[in-house]
Amino acid sequence: SASVGDRSPYYRSCLEKCSNANCTEGGINFRSSVGAQAQPLYLQLTKWSCQDECQYNCMWKTVVITLSISILCLNFFQWPFIRILGIQEPASVIFSILNFIAHYMMLRKFRREVRKTSPMYWLWHAYAMVCLNCWFWSSMFHIRDTPFTEMMDYFSAFSTVLFSFYAMVVRLLNGQSRVMTVILSFLCVGFFVHHITYLALINFDYGYNMKANIVVGIANAMGWLIWCFYYWKSQLYVWQCALFVLLVGVCMIFEVMDFPPLMWIIDAHSLWHFATAGLPFLFYRYV
User: Fold this and answer.
1) Is 266 helix (H, G, I), strand (E, B) or coil?
2) Which end of the chain is more exposed for a tag (fewer CB within 10 A), N or C?
3) Is residue 76 a part of any domain in this protein?
4) Membrane-spanning residues where (predicted)?
5) CA–CA distance, 229 with 134 (Å, rounded to integer)
């Protein structure tokens, strides 16, 4: 359902007038070549259509009007952000890139210091690649929120949660049962394919996606903590894994918080990305 901002009579009236005056049918192109040429190149490169321009400009007009008579800020499906060079959520983009860089740096260190013949080498190598893919699409989604980038962001985020769970179970098995590892691999791949197929082709259900992430995430965290408790005395380095899991839980506080963006740039979600940027340095020391 539409948000309070999207349902605002002022916003809806502004959007209708802007679209009728400037946009072709469908809202993709500008009616006049003057309007198209007036759009800066960086907005063209980031695919801001005529309808997108109307929505952005009317959003800010509505925010200004609302704040002039109330201290409450309207939410337009998401909070209003100031775009910079066509980037919708600049802070989230920067912090997503920081996460990408952190995983990339630790992957390079992992490759230098760990032998390819080590039992878990390819598992953690694959984990790093999954994480890099996740933060790449997080950056793309926050640059421009489109149906495609949204799907890729959600799918890659779930792939990271699910792969972490997979790696945890493989670590628990410790190479003792290849049959169980193969079965686990098929189950995880099958569940992931079912998950993204359902969301992409049947129903993009935000609630279902969130529940799937929470259930797999809790199972993953509990598994790692149980493993750490079991090996706490025999393997002194497991405290790094335990601390990582606990810090991820603490960082999740930002994900459940919700407040208007500070300076119209930094919101709770971007702070969640900022808080996780340093965690790879801890986790890769453990693996």
Assistant:
1) strand
2) N
3) no
4) 63-81, 87-107, 119-138, 154-173, 180-202, 214-232, 237-256, 262-284
5) 29
Q: In this structure, is residue 77 part of a structural domain? A: no
Q: Which residues pair with residue 76 across a beta bridge?
A: 78
Task: Please tell me the predicted confidence (pLDDT) of residue 3.
Answer: 67
CA dist., res. 55 & res. 160, Å (int): 33
Query: How many C-beta atoms surround the C-beta of residue 198 within 10 A?
Result: 15
Query: For position 135, which CATH number holds?
Result: 1.20.1070
Domain that holds residue 154: 90-286
Q: Find all residues with CB under 8 Å of 39, minimum gap 6, and list them.
A: 30, 48, 53
Q: Residue 47's CB: how many other CB atoms inside 10 A?
A: 12
Which residue has 């960082």 as its token pair? Answer: 251
Q: Do 136 and 274 share a domain, yes or no?
A: yes
pLDDT digits (tens, 9 = 90+) for 158-199: 999 999 999 999 988 877 778 999 999 999 999 999 999 999
Domain boundary among 69, 101, 118: 69
Name residues of the chain where pLDDT drops below 70: 1-3, 34-36, 70-77
218-256: per-residue pLDDT in tens?
999 999 999 898 888 887 788 998 999 999 999 988 888
DSSP annotation string for 73-103: PPPBSB-----BTTBS-HHHHHHHHHHHHHH
Residue 106 and residue 200 in one domain: yes
Specify whether 19 is located in the same domain as 63: yes
Are 164 and 263 in a shared domain? yes
Q: Mean pLDDT for the chain?
A: 90
pLDDT given for residue 238 in this prediction: 87
